[in-house]
């Protein structure tokens, strides 16, 4: 029986034809995504679901998805998909990370021009039969300083276009190396420096805990008087009420927003303010981009449903069906090793070195490399996947190297990941036991044997008495249950580490209590994607 795909949002006829040409049964219902109850009622009859942004794939819908194998989003953002529920259900989630980069970057540039020259207001005035030439005095972009927050895929294109407009470009991106910045022709700066110097500020970062409200009221107060702010990335990056106040006071001269904290945005503090240009999330809305992502989705889903090949998956590596049976646990381990280092590293990464020892050195190292890099990069970009992660790393100027070696120790195979920054090197190693469970076996050269859990606590300290007691008492006082407790040290009275596998998040009060003891040089809460 042919695989059956449901398309619940608007998708091009060319994409629908791809499914048909490849022998897939297609049910094209472009308005179904707005009716979540009907979608939940019929989803059980389909192997694949192709969507855009209108369809919300909730846990309830997935509960009824008894045959669903893959969800593919024609676009980058997958906030409308419950990825945790999909993973637990065994459903692959795909996106199309590169189909609309140019379109979104061009929209940001267009918004800069619109705000600089007050084009929408001038157009409305002229349409109304007025001739208010002196009212709409604009500014040039040439010679102005553009501050780019986030110099990744889209932000990098904006930097390139802005340099073509003869703007001076400064960029804030913790993961942008100095070498890469030089190649891009931009000046790498800290956020406060960008705020103080930029005539225009444009945001190109995902919405994460680190970027939420990155332009807060306090940050806006640090900006240069007369600055103009553009956001075509994600809602919630800017304090909209604070920006509205800054616009009213004249400190901010203008703003162009394509995204909002609450969407659809039928009301917003920015609406109705002079020299504020707003559009209804049109960043990816060009004929070319919509066609590109639609065709990409059709090809990816067809490949998976017909051959088992996986590409641009957010919750599964890009490997063949045959490789997945053997490599699954090792890919999971690789992701955990990367996630550990990614969460521990705040400064820009210059290089990632991966050592494969023993049996794992004979596997599909390309997929394992992608899993490691994706684990590292996810902290900065939650939408990164094992296909796009190496591209993102390469664009940031990160050098990735691998070393293979025959079995060298007690383990049949292990993986060691070392990250190099301007300040330090950090390493972690792990293996897969015979039960298929990944384990951490070494951190910072200190041997351990640690089971990996969704929530963990990592500490470093001098090897002195009282550490176990302090950790146990603090966790107990704060109601945190310890599932597993692993210790290691470099030598007696030397550097020591502890890794706790705990049943839930650690309260901020507990972290502060541990730091206040003076016993620990580092206290870090960690999270891992453990099914």
Automatic annotation (TrEMBL):
Q: In which pathway does it act?
A: Amino-acid biosynthesis; L-serine biosynthesis; L-serine from 3-phospho-D-glycerate: step 1/3
Set out the biological process GO terms recorded for this chain's protein. Answer: L-serine biosynthetic process
Give one GO molecular function term.
Answer: phosphoglycerate dehydrogenase activity
Question: Under which EC number(s) is this enzyme classified?
Answer: 1.1.1.95
Provide the D-isomer specific 2-hydroxyacid dehydrogenase NAD-binding domain boundaries: 109-283
All copies of the D-isomer specific 2-hydroxyacid dehydrogenase catalytic domain together span: 5-315
Q: Where is the signal peptide?
A: none
- Keywords on this record? Amino-acid biosynthesis, NAD, Oxidoreductase
Q: Which residues form the D-3-phosphoglycerate dehydrogenase ASB domain?
A: 327-444
- Annotated Pfam families: 2-Hacid_dh, 2-Hacid_dh_C, PGDH_inter
InterPro entries in the cross-refs: ACT-like_dom_sf (IPR045865), ASB_dom_sf (IPR029009), D-2-hydroxyacid_DH (IPR050857), D-isomer_2_OHA_DH_cat_dom (IPR006139), D-isomer_DH_CS (IPR029753), D-isomer_DH_CS1 (IPR029752), D-isomer_DH_NAD-bd (IPR006140), NAD(P)-bd_dom_sf (IPR036291)
Give the family from UniProt.
Belongs to the D-isomer specific 2-hydroxyacid dehydrogenase family.
Q: Protein name, please? A: D-3-phosphoglycerate dehydrogenase
Q: Which organism is it from?
A: marine sediment metagenome
């Amino acid at each position: 029986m042919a695989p059956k795909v449901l398309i619940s949002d608007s998708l091009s006829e060319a994409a629908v034809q791809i499914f048909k040409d490849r022998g897939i049964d297609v049910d094209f219902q472009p308005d179904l995504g707005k009716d979540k109850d009907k979608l939940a009622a019929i989803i059980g009859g389909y192997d694949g679901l192709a969507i855009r942004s209108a369809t919300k794939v909730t846990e309830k819908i997935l509960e009824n998805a008894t045959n669903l194998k893959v969800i593919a989003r024609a676009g980058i953002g997958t906030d409308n998909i419950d990825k945790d529920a999909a993973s637990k259900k065994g459903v692959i989630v795909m996106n199309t990370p590169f189909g609309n980069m140019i379109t979104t970057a061009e929209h940001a540039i267009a918004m800069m021009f619109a705000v600089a020259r007050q084009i929408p207001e001038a157009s409305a005035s002229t349409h109304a039969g007025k001739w208010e030439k002196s009212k709409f005095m604009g500014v040039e972009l040439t010679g102005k300083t553009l501050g780019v927050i986030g110099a990744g895929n889209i932000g990098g294109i904006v930097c390139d276009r802005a340099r073509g407009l003869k703007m001076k470009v400064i960029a804030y991106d913790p993961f942008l190396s100095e070498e890469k910045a030089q190649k891009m022709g931009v000046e790498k700066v800290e956020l406060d420096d960008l705020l103080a110097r930029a005539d225009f500020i444009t945001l190109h970062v995902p919405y994460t805990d680190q970027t939420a409200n990155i332009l807060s009221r306090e940050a806006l107060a640090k900006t240069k008087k007369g600055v103009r702010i553009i956001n075509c990335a994600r809602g919630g990056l800017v304090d909209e009420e604070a920006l509205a106040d800054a616009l009213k006071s004249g400190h901010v001269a203008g703003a162009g927003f394509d995204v909002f904290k609450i969407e659809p945005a039928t009301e917003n503090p920015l609406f109705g303010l002079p020299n504020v240009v707003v559009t209804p999330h049109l960043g990816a809305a060009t004929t070319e981009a919509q066609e590109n992502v639609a065709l990409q989705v059709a090809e990816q889903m067809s490949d998976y449903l017909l051959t088992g090949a996986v590409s641009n998956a957010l919750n599964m590596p890009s490997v063949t069906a045959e490789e997945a049976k053997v490599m699954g646990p090792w890919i999971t381990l690789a992701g955990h090793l990367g996630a550990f280092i990614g969460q521990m590293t705040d400064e820009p990464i210059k290089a990632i070195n991966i050592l494969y020892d023993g049996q794992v050195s004979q596997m599909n190292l390309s997929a394992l490399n992608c899993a490691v890099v994706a684990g590292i990069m996810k902290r900065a970009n939650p939408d990164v996947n094992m296909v796009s992660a190496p591209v993102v790393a390469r664009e940031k100027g990160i050098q990735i190297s691998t070393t293979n070696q025959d079995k060298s120790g007690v383990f049949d195979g292990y993986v060691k990941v070392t990250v190099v920054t301007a300040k330090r090197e950090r390493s972690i190693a792990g293996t897969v036991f015979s039960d298929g469970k990944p384990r951490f076996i070494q951190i910072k050269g200190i041997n351990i044997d640690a089971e990996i859990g969704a929530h963990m606590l990592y500490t470093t300290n001098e090897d002195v008495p009282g550490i176990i007691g302090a950790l146990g008492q603090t966790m107990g006082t704060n109601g945190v249950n310890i599932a597993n407790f692993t210790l290691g040290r470099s030598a007696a009275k030397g550097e020591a580490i502890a890794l706790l596998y705990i049943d839930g998040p650690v309260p901020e009060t507990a972290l502060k209590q541990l730091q206040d003891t003076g016993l620990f040089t580092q206290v870090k809460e960690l999270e891992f994607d453990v099914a």
